[in-house]
Amino acid sequence: MDTHVASESKRSSVVRGLYDRLEDRCLMRDQKGASDVFYELVHANRPLTEIVAEGVRIHAPYTHVPYHERIDDGYPNFVNNDHCLLSARATLNLNRMLPPHLAMLPMAQTIWYIPTGLDIWNQKIDKAPGHYTRHRGNQGEVEAPPAPTVFWPDQEPLAQSGPLKERLNNWMTLVHRGQVIEAYRLFLGLMQNPAERRDVLAEMVFAGLIDVQDRLLHNRSYTTGHKAYRARSTVEIGNALGWDHAHQVVYAGALDIAVGPRWYSTYEVACNYIKMMIEGETLRAVPYGGVSDAERAMLRNSAPVNQQEAVELSNAVLRQGEIESLEVVTKLLKAGKDPRRILDVLQIAVAQLVLQTRDPNAFNMPHHCYEYHNTLAWFWDTFDHPRRLRLLYVAAMFANRVAYNQQGLGEVHPVSPQVPSGAGSLSAEQILDRVDHAIVALHGDEAIGWTQAYCDSGADRDRLVQRIALAACKMGNDPHNQEIAQCMLMDFDTNRQPDRDRLLLAAAYHTAMHRKYGDPQEPSRRFGHAMGLAELH
Fold first, then answer.
1. Residue 356 CB neighbours (<10 A)
2. Contacts of 254 (CB under 8 A, 6+ apart)
3. What is the rounded CA–CA span in Å between residue 529 and residue 535?
4. Confidence (pLDDT) at 27
């Protein structure tokens, strides 16, 4: 055998052995052991996409649940979606926001979480070890935990003939009915043709975006847009890996779309409201379908939303009711306003909901609502989907319900950023250090104040984005939360409203204030020690 070939074969064997060990440690729910293997992979200069692919391969079979709700002794309980996949998606984006020497920190958080993110269904009833079991107070170490359960085995593709539109409609029907395996097999078949793949992926994300329930206040069992986030993660990770190497990503994400519960009543309101108020029809008890010329015309609107109009929409969403919110959105569309720019205004309104929240346990609805608006903006900018106008109405209704929820919880507190005295005498770098310190110390108001001070200084916003991203990446144990900051920082780059700095304030504040699990800096400190990065110790 050629010496070079033999060397490469040996290297390949060593790398494979590392991933086998990583899988073993994850399945044993060993966070520290899995992290140690990850450090070896980083020292071996393995590419991020390869590590992401292997991480998804390991957790994909074990992060599905039979249903996202369970009735336990007469009490409805929510069973969450896959934070492992969501964290990997955020990792790909945070990786680009950080200094090169810290670029692997987000993946360190993902690897730390994976062992605790398996078999959530059984964790919820204390039959499997992990993140949620510990949250119930079971802190015991498990030397030989039971194997995680595979509730939905992987499948073979099912090919169908006929026009793509017809096949996508058949898939959506199976999703609507909750026929999980049949829908997944048909989706795998739809993905076989590269020429059709983009439209197939757009429909998958659309199916997630229309799945938003119709009430929130005092609910704990809810569909907070998570299927859209999982579908979006599937697309972004698949694009990064290449679809010829992304089957496990599809398995991890696409199958879940049909898992219950499924809520389409809010989306139905959007469909009917457009039919009545944009198309001018009187609704009747007949089947409707398709997209009208009037609806398509609204997608071509291009006028910006001025500040007075933005205030009117924000007031309707945050302080009035659903009817007023729908009416203002319609008024703006009929005035020729670009729906994508209307979404910019909604993003800032939802960021305001985050900033008004004080209780660390009360961010659940505002931050999920924010992620929905970020995901919708990403969807709008990524796919030319013909029914996306309806999702603008869904987003406005979702935001309005979250505002009502926060009012019901007493979590609407005044926001008045207080720039610390003496900030004007500090350099931009010194202010950034104080932003970082305030976030890591979990001092939300100080984080807002120092972030505002940096914005007032006129210094380069990119440096602030990087520092907030880094602070978010220091916070571990459930990296779905650092994903929220990533969404806000991403939107700061695409939002065109003049007050978009509010997204930076919200990113800093939320990172400091959201509910933490255990020691939130443990994963980043361990990574810092392993990589010789004193700034993370």
1. 18
2. 184, 187, 188, 204, 231, 234
3. 10
4. 96
pLDDT tens profile 25-84: 999 999 999 999 999 999 999 999 999 999 999 999 999 999 999 898 898 888 888 899
Q: Which of 31, 40, 43 lies closest to 110 in space, CA to CA?
A: 31
Q: Structure tokens of 492?
A: 């700061």
Question: What kind and span of H or E run contains 77?
Answer: strand 75-78
| 479, 418 contact by CB (below 8 A) | no
Rounded alpha-carbon distances, angstroms, from residue 528 to 22, 87, 110, 216, 439 = 19, 19, 15, 40, 18
- The structure tokens listed for 178 are 């909750």
Which distant-in-sequence residues (6+ apart) come within 8 Å of 230 by Cβ?
81, 82, 85, 86, 208, 253, 256, 257
CB atoms within 10 A of CB 19: 19
pLDDT tens profile 311-351: 999 999 999 999 999 999 999 999 999 999 999 999 999 99
Average pLDDT for the chain: 93
Checking DSSP bridges between strand 75-78 and strand 69-72, what pairing results, if any? antiparallel
CB 259 within 8 A of CB 219: no
For the record, the structure tokens of 320 come out as 């009035």
**Rounded Cα gap, residues 522 and 391, in angstroms:** 39
With a CB cutoff of 8 Å and minimum separation 6, the contacts of 213 are 219, 222, 223, 261, 263, 265, 266
Residues 254-266 pLDDT 10s: 999 999 999 999 9
CA nearest to 494, candidates 374, 395, 391: 374
42 Cβ contact list (under 8 Å, min separation 6): 104, 530, 531
Q: How far apart are CA 234 and CA 391, in angstroms?
A: 20
| pLDDT tens per residue across span 473-514 | 999 888 888 899 999 999 999 999 999 999 999 999 999 999
Closest-CA residue to 499 (of 377, 373, 351, 318): 351
- For 134-181, the DSSP string reads HHTT-----SSPPPPP-SS---------S-HHHHHHHHHHHHHHT-HH
pTM of the model: 0.96
Q: Identify whether 261 is preceded by a cis peptide bond (ω within 30 of 0).
A: yes
- What is the gyration radius of the CA atoms in the chain, in angstroms? 23
Sequence-ordered alpha helix ranges (H) in 28-80: 31-43, 48-59
Q: Which token pair is 378?
A: 């990403």
Sign of CA dihedral 124, 125, 128, 130: positive
